[in-house]
């Protein structure tokens, strides 16, 4: 089955460009389009897309609040990728903090856009650039540090989380640590459960905010 995508952006030209890029792929289809975040929840319920590609800034309901609404009200919510102009935008970080699975720059090459959709659909997180790592580290607080301590990760789980924070996929972690893919998947699941993280992106945010991992 192809990966179904809902496009959400208030600029028709942006939606048209994304549609042309994605529908040129044999394994991706565009299920629908919306011009504002306010339309996302009903369209997600109707279309059941695998991925929502959503502008972070929109006039009625922005991508941050739309992300929160989807995750709060939709059973088995789709993966969410926010679309932005600047990678160090505080709005982008807030969207990731709210539960988005990754982000895309509007100037990204077509191949990068396609790969981003495939990556989040497969359950992997998108690599945090240096600017977002610094933002996450700058948001560090005692609550995040205390939560990381309570998680009581094993040495192996801690090692896996550090590699997750570098943006490595399960397969890449398996090769790096000379482990089986299923073993890595088990460790990743344990890390998410202990941190109370929805997905890899949330776990990586926790790692940076707690100081467990530092930019560099």
From TrEMBL:
This is DNA-binding response regulator. Transmembrane segments: none annotated. GO terms for molecular function: DNA binding. The keyword Transcription applies. It comes from the Bacteria. It comes from Streptosporangium nondiastaticum. InterPro entries: CheY-like_superfamily, NreC/VraR/RcsB-like_REC, Sig_transdc_resp-reg_C-effctor, Sig_transdc_resp-reg_receiver, Tscrpt_reg_LuxR_C, WalR-like. One of its GO terms (biological process) is regulation of DNA-templated transcription. The modification 4-aspartylphosphate is found at residue 55.
